[in-house]
Structures are given as C-alpha cells and as structure tokens.
Design brief:
With 323 residues, this protein is α+β, with helices and mostly antiparallel strands. The longest helix is centred in the last third of the chain and has 25 residues.
C-alpha cells in the first residue's frame, strides 16, 4: 500500500501511517485532563497532531526524534489539517525507510562545494583566500558544512541545506557587487561563507533536525565567532604573517549582525555596507525558500491559494494549476 505523505493528507480521512516526531508536549485542557500536542513529519512536511486523554506514562513512551505508528484520522482546524491520533506506537528506526523522512538538496552537493570553493579562491585579497582555505582543508568541518541543514523548520531544513543556502547567497552577491563600487566584494563574499558556519555545531541532523546543547546555550553566531577566531590563528601560521586586526573585526561584525535587527537575535545592527548587503541577501534567500516551502507543503491542493498561514499573517497565491 503506497505511503500517505503529509502533503497528501486531506480533511476527514482515516490515517494509519508512520511519522517522525519533531515536537511533543503534554498539556492540560480546561478540565485538567491531559492531552499530547505533537508535530509529526516526513520528507514532504509537518503536521500538528493531538492525542486526547493522555497520561504521563503514555507521554514517556516515545521521544522527539522517534518514529511512531499513528492510527487515527484528520480534521480541519482553523484552516489547517491536523491529525487526531487514537493510537501511537513507537517504531524501531531500523524498520523505517529513511528516504521517506529526509528532504535532501536537489542539486549535486559535490558541485556546489566545488563552486563555493571556486568563488572564494578567486578573490583578490590573499589573506581572505588563505583564511577560506583553512576551512577548506579541514575535512571534518567541510563534511559537516556540506551535510548540515540551515534550519530546523523554516528554510533549507534538510541535509545539505546550509551548503545550498550559502552557495546561492554567494551567487547573488557576485551579481550585485558590480553595481555597488563602494562595497568590498571580497569582504562580503567571505562574510557570506562565514555567517552561518556555526550551524555546523548548533544543529544536530543525524536523524531529526534539532538543536545541540551548545546550539541552545550559545547560538550559531557565537559558535561561528569561536570557529573564526581559531581559523584566523591557523591562517597566520600558514601565511607566516599577522592577520589584519581591522579585517578580523569587520568579519566578526558580519557574523554577529547578519540577523539584521535585535528582535531576530542580532547582538548588533549592521554598521557597514557589507553587513547591510549580507543581511538582505540572507533574508532574500531564506524568505523565498521559506515561502516556497509553505506552497509546496500546503494541503489545499484544490485551490490556487494556500490556507491562511498565521505565522506570516496571509495566504499565498500558488497560481492556477497547469494540469
């Protein structure tokens, strides 16, 4: 029997399928009776699920990152499909087809890696090329960088997502740099490469996409600063000369300001042309991919419009079907 993926779920259907648990909470209702609020996922997306009249014992039978067999049905709630589970059973991961649960980058990761290295090695600033090479020759780092997602839910939340996000940003930067002569192109390109490297340590992605302890406690900008500091020291040994202190400061500023505003967790606002450019290129790519995800995962396939999306306070127009 063919698998029923999340993006195929419709209102008022019977459900008997395996999913990955990506979030769960035990909550009381108004009468003090507990229920389990979950997010269950597969490679096509995520959906909310509830199990009524739950107990603490039931809640402890499976964890975030586990695969569970869900029996129940679907219903529409506040414009979105949700699952009402009647039975939840933990499933051995060895019996699961992993391809059903991992979204992967659709382009050749080796080609993306080679293109990223080509762009940075063609910079004119030899110190920045040398710094980039210190990352490139670190095979352990590059393996993590090429496998890591760029997020856990919203954008590029799949294996290889960080590499794809970074490579796309570099290509965009190459297109706009000629139009703004005041921009230091090499500094911007290096900042783009560095801005999310901390996600290689912030995120865990061997099974479910989640945060590591250091990711929760420090966040990827701080982790990136630590990694950058170490690689600057390595580059000084490699080049047998001191790395320019101002350039180091500007690179660190690019890393800690790339979220753009305090409300998004940025310790500092962008204060250089390169930092402003980095923030908006980052925002452009992440938002376009995020909105494309909303359209791709939308269960409202019979309409050119998505369901109303509370997180962005709007529907999205998908266009008329070409079928």
């Amino acid at each position: 029997m063919p698998r029923r993926y999340v993006n195929q779920l419709r209102d008022n259907e019977t459900l008997d399928e395996i999913f990955l648990v990506t979030d769960k909470q035990l909550r009381p209702n108004r009468n003090g009776v507990f229920y389990i609020q979950m997010t269950i996922s597969d490679r096509t997306g995520s959906v909310g699920a509830r199990f009524w009249n739950a107990t603490e014992e039931m809640f402890q039978q499976f964890a975030v990152g586990d695969y569970v067999h869900v029996e129940g049905g679907t219903q529409r709630f506040l414009g979105a499909i949700q699952v009402i589970a009647k039975k939840i059973t933990k499933v051995d991961s060895d019996s699961v087809n992993q391809d059903d649960f991992k979204r992967t980058v659709q382009v050749d990761r080796m080609k993306l890696r080679q293109r990223l290295m080509e762009i940075l090695r063609n910079m004119k600033n030899s110190s920045l090329v040398n710094l980039a090479d210190c990352f490139f020759i670190d095979e352990e780092f590059m393996d993590r960088f090429c496998r890591a997602p760029a997020g856990v839910k919203l954008h590029h939340a799949y294996e290889g997502g960080l590499l794809e996000h970074t490579a796309t940003m570099l290509e965009v930067a190459l297109k706009i740099i000629p139009f703004y002569p005041a921009l230091n192109g090499d500094l911007l390109l290096t900042g783009i490469f560095l801005h999310d490297i901390g996600k290689t340590e912030e995120l865990a992605y061997d099974s479910d996409m989640t945060y590591t302890d250091s990711g929760q406690m420090l966040g990827h900008p701080v982790l990136a600063l630590e990694m950058l500091h170490d690689k600057i020291r390595e580059s000084e040994k490699l080049a047998e000369e001191r790395f320019d202190p101002e350039t180091a400061m500007l690179l660190k500023h690019l890393v800690i300001s790339h979220h753009g505003i305090y409300e998004h967790g940025s310790p500092k606002l962008p204060m250089t042309l390169e930092a402003v450019a980095l923030h908006f290129i980052d925002s452009l790519d992440s938002k376009l991919v995020e909105f494309e995800k909303y359209m791709f995962e939308d269960p409202n396939t019979g309409s050119p419009w998505t369901n109303y999306l509370p997180s962005i306070e709007r529907k999205l127009y998908k266009g008329e079907s070409k079928d």
